[in-house]
Amino acid sequence: MIHETTIESCSVHGVKLYEMRHVLDPVRGHLTVGDFSQDLPFQPQRYFLTYAIPSEQTRGEHAHRQCAQFLLCTHGECHLRVDDGENCEEFCLNRPTFGVLVPPMVWATAHLHSPDSVLMVLASRPYEPEDYIREYGDFLTVLNNNQASS
Fold it and tell me: 62, 75, 79, 111: which one is catalytic?
């Protein structure tokens, strides 16, 4: 059985929830696929994987000024909290067909990793240290300054 990609919005500005195209085949095994040009709103410039994260540790805890990210837990599970300064939501990434698009200027934190979790992150830009906002207070200040100048 083939399932097409579906995309839903949430209360956090610009965050999108993806159920990726996948095929369920109990005989040959399951498959999930994403065409970068069709299924994602950007062409990835880099990827990284986080794994072997102790469950009490967090990853992320930052926002990007320009970089968008697409997160997909390929094995195990972890939780992703997203925050736009006004709204906050949390999702359990627990299947390789469920991905979350985190646009620029959204604070994201990955936590509650299962011992076997492997989180894949596709990024719209190469690594640029100046693109990171690593302190939540600074994030809120930048948001407020952006809104004041709009």
Answer: 62
Residue 28 maps to a domain = no
How do residues 8-35 score in pLDDT, each as one tens digit?
Answer: 999 999 999 999 989 999 999 999 988 8
pLDDT one-digit tens code per residue, 61-85: 999 999 999 999 999 999 999 999 9
Is-contact 120 74, C-beta < 8 A?
yes
CATH number, position 139: 2.60.120.10
For the chain, how big is the Rg over CA atoms in Å?
16
Domain range spanning residue 89? 10-17+42-149
Number of domains the chain contains: 1
| H-type alpha helices, 6-125 | 36-39
What is the sign, positive or negative, of the torsion defined by CA atoms of 25, 31, 89, 120? Answer: positive
Place of tokens 């299962």: 114
The amino acid that residue 11 corresponds to is S
In a domain, 85, yes or no: yes
* 62 in active site: yes
